[in-house]
Amino acid sequence: MISNRRRLFLWTVRGGMYLAAALTGILTLFLVGYVMAKGIPNITWQLISTKPSYLSGNIGILPDILNTLYVVIASLAIVLPLGVGAAVYLTEYASSKRLVGVIEYAAEALSGIPSIIYGLVGMLMFSNNFGTCLLSGALTLVIMNLPTIMRNTQESLKTVPQAYREGAFGLGAGKWRVVRTVVLPGCIDGVLTGCILSVGRILGESAALLFTAGFAHALNGFWDGLSSAGATLTVALYVYAKEQGEFGVAFAIAAILMVLSLLINLAAVLVTKYFQRRNAV
Amino acid sequence: MNRPVITVNGLNLWYGQTQALKNISLDIPEKSITALIGPSGCGKSTFLKTLNRMNDLVPGVRITGSVCYEGQDIFETNVNQLRKEVGMVFQKPNPFPMSIYNNIAYGPRTHGITNRQELDEIVEKALRGAAIWDEVKDRLKKNALGLSGGPQQRLCIARALAVQPKVLLMDEPTSALDPIATSRIEDLVMELKSQYTIVIVTHNMQQAVRISDQTAFFLLGDLVEYAETEKLFSQPGDKRTEEYITGRFG
Ligand SMILES: Nc1ncnc2c1ncn2[C@@H]1O[C@H](COP(=O)(O)OP(=O)(O)OP(=O)(O)O)[C@@H](O)[C@H]1O
Ligand SMILES: [Mg+2]
Prior knowledge:
- The complex is a heterodimer.
- By secondary structure, chain A is mostly helical.
- In chain A, about 80% of the residues lie in helices and about 0% in strands.
- Chain A folds into two domains: about 5-40; about 45-280, MetI-like (MetI-like fold, Orthogonal Bundle), CATH 1.10.3720.
């Protein structure tokens, strides 16, 4: 028999858990709904296809969209070879277990540092040398995302069966050929997951970019864009809301970012599912 | 016995502090089947993997003594060249997660063959050689992981044959297979003997009797007895061999 007091206790605990779950769900829905409701009416073709002009008083976020794209491309182009290369070195080549341990620990620690500190360091390291520009911002983001790419690649390298490596070595393949043809194709899922997480992080980043890439809204091509100051969408959101009081524009950007981050989450889930199914063959 | 292809002299091997092979000396004759038998953990796989230096992949291995392939010290020759000549088939079928065609072409491509027509010929010849051509010729572009265990193992044999080795090392190639697949592999191995030198580890003494020309019995890292299969199983020269083959331990 359960005593009445005990029953009351269990009832309270269960009720509390339902309440917490419901609250989380409601908060999320409210936040998404609120941002969408305030943002979507402000998204016009005019807004996303033009650049801002002080003369005509026009506000357009095309430069910010492009800048975001440039930063994502430049960061990934640099961080991918570095992160994947480091992961391959650590799992396939490094002979010192201690060195591997130290680097893995450092990567773990690096990913917990607040992004504003990356901004500060990036400003001193990159902006002071290359100027305040998207390239400096991208390089800062490279440092931020290096651990993500490296750790995800490493984890998935560890799941490539040793039997594949043995089979290839047994046919007289050298180390590099084994890595290139058998090991790397087996870790694409980890690389992709790392990429998706990094893109999400880059989209959401503001502090590190405010320090290093500035917040101009000029319309540039890729290479000119990299060497000029520029705002990504998230930075633009901050500037429009805080400096210019343009809340309609800020919410429009917020809605766009929200949709993008939902899409990225979805992509991550789909990629994981796809590779789980493929590996189950 | 035919002329020896591999000669082993005073071979010792340690994994860290533990000695897995103790002063092994034996000759492996050309174009014949040599079976390695013995209880679990006696060093059969270790010995086999020494012959094409797959032990190089294990950290902390130390080897003394000599192993010669065609009169050349294997520890002095290029390891990739050695493994091209001395191929290997593993206990668990391990096809690569790629098409059947690319599995077979992997070895030849590794050794510099890129001509499509030449590769086509090698792939067909290797698959025929491993008695699996008819089964897979219509789905060469399909993923090799879609085959079941027996065909996968024959695919792995074909993959090893495609680099035209002289010696084929097989580590319990049938232990993961059902009886029908096993007997097909045994038939295949006996056919391959006319062209290749085969060293096969087996837990199954009937298998050793059925297919091998000579048998080596290992125990706790020692080579206890090495003789013609018929002789070893009918009149073993050592008490421990007799106990093992009559099933009193192991
Ligand atoms: N990588 C390794 N590191 C350390 N010790 C090992 C390693 N591989 C094998 N050994 C040890 O060496 C000894 C011989 O192992 P080996 O695998 O050669 O035996 P085996 O005769 O093939 O056994 P089985 O019939 O179970 O396959 C065993 O005691 C084993 O524990
Ligand atoms: Mg073994």
